[in-house]
Amino acid sequence: MSISLLAIIGGLTSTGLYLITARSLSRIILGFSLLGHAAVVALLASGGTPGEAPIAGKDAGISNPVPQALGLTAIVISFGLTLFLLALAGRQQTLAGDDLVEDDLEDRRIASGESVGARQ
Amino acid sequence: MSVLVALTILAPLFCAAAGIALRTRSRLRDGVTLFGLLAAAGSAIALLVLVADDRTHVVRVGGWNAELGIVLVADLFATLVLPVALTIIVVVEIFAIGQRRTAWGANPELTGPLLCVLTAGVSLAFLTGDLFTLFVAFEMILVSSYVLLTHQGQRGQIRSGMTYVVMNLLASTLFLFGLAIVYASTGTVNIAIATERIAELPDGIRLGIGAWFLVVFGTKAAIFPLFSWLPDSYPTAPTTITAVFAGLLTKIGIYAIIRFHTLTGMEELGPIILILAAVTMIIGAFGALAQTDVKRILSFHIISQIGYMLMGLGLFTEAGTAAAILFLVHHMPVKTVLFLVGGLIENDQGTSALDRTGGLAARRPLIAVFFAIPALSLAGLPPFSGFVAKFAVISAGIAEASTVIVTAALVAGALTLLSMTKIWVGVFWGERPDAVSGTSHDDAPGNRTTMVTAAGLAVTGTLAISLFAGTIFDLSQRAAQDLRNPAGYIAEVQS
User: Fold this and answer.
1) B267-311 tens-digit pLDDT
2) Which of A25, A96, A116 sits opposite B292 (nearest CB)?
3) Which of B92, B266, B338, B388 could form a disulfide with B210 if both were Cys (CB 3.0 to 4.6 A apart)?
4) Per-state percent for chain B, helix, strand, coil, to nearest 5
5) How many interface pairs between A and B have CB atoms less than 8 angstroms apart?
6) Do B169 and A43 touch (CB under 8 A)?
7) Taking a contact as any Cβ pair under 8 Å apart, which residues of chain A between 34 and 63 contact chain B?
8) Helices in chain A by DSSP H: which ranges?
9) Nearest 5 degrees, angle CA B20-CA B251-CA B311?
10) pTM metric for this prediction
11) Domains of chain A (ranges plus CATH)?
């Protein structure tokens, strides 16, 4: 595995992980896009040495096509999920006026020992 | 036999497409949905009978060999769990048809087809023989669960949906990284071939892979400390959807852990898994005690029960694995019934908060019975299926002289009973508080009959499991033997 691929995977993963620790869903979406790319690059790197395009009939000197197939599937899935997250952020924007991930209210209420009847 | 394997996945997928095409014609859509689910469940039962009699059946999709192509492996473990899971979905769909005209129902145009996609994903996850298809199956299940959870677009659902989606998406991304690691170190994603090659890897890489997938599947299974998304998100969805999630989703994570870690023989991880199991049980049980809402108490119980299955696995003995499989089979229907009964309570009382319900035992004795049976079963009292499952897990623990984990299991069991008592006192005894000038949401008696019938069917199912516990335990033991001695599995897949 070449050092440049490793650097790309590391860079994308760390930036992505930093972004998904944010409260705002739009940052989380960006973070997941980067993490998805990092995972696909990692899959590609796992295929071993690079070579010519893997076209049927050629035997020697081609790249390993299996990780490429896996990577393509992963890309399609992450496309769909990014769209869904965007829709979720959009809905939160309409409902709450922002796209921040909120705390579990019920949990907060029980933790603070507030009387049950006080709800609503 | 290959047709049966294909039917469990394809029948619900085709019916999902048909259901979307027919979304405006409710009768026809419901019929198509039910037909697809029944076809899948029927095939699964037939598969169990055939595989239990004969032997593992391997389907090579497109005729490719196992190293390059997708294989579906109908071994005893998969075919033992599959019919239970698919039957549960059928029962829940019947309940959903009854519930949909009430205030608590889910949007029928979406839930029918999405439930079918989820079913196809569940079948694929159980039957698949390679890790990448397992990833795709997880995504099929999760994507439909994301939509099912948030499709009503209410504020609480969007809020908890965000946590749920982000946590699960992170686990899926880690899964992809794990696949890259496995492919780089073994040159395959096929579970059987990888099992063979992982055994030859240096210990560091081998255990690294084991630990990585423990985190990935553990997030889906909600084990400590990766459970926080579960009690937050499950209670906000409509009851029928929570019932499916509670019965199936976390169990698929546990199924994957049992399959992967037992086949690859990650015995060095055993002590860590046992510690996680003990903490998971205790935290889940204490979490349940603190809650004041039926659905939230039940959600915390899921976490606590996951600990028992993990404990059976973490012992890494044949008895332990068999007990974990038996617990899995017992737990899926029991948990689903409890959530369905939670739905009946909500339907009758207008809420599932303990302080605003009461006196249901006098008004609706049938619901009380339907709650009591699975609740006692979950707490592990004889003669119900929970007793047999817990007894198997704990005796496997005693056989290994693991005192700490056995104590933790017994304490968690007592705490579970305590929180069930809390629900019983809050919902079924006493008077309904006057503060709730509630009209019950019981607007059409026909719907209630369907819902009660579905819940009754499910209760009968759990009783049947305790009745046939001997047979099921024998099958679990055979499945555990197959998992503990992977040579047979590897030979079947590669032949």
Assistant:
1) 889 899 999 999 999 999 998 888 888 888 888 989 999 999 999
2) A116
3) B266
4) 80, 5, 20
5) 102
6) no
7) 35-36, 38-40, 42-43, 45-47
8) 3-20, 25-45, 65-96, 105-111
9) 175
10) 0.91
11) 3-52+60-118 (1.10.287.3510)
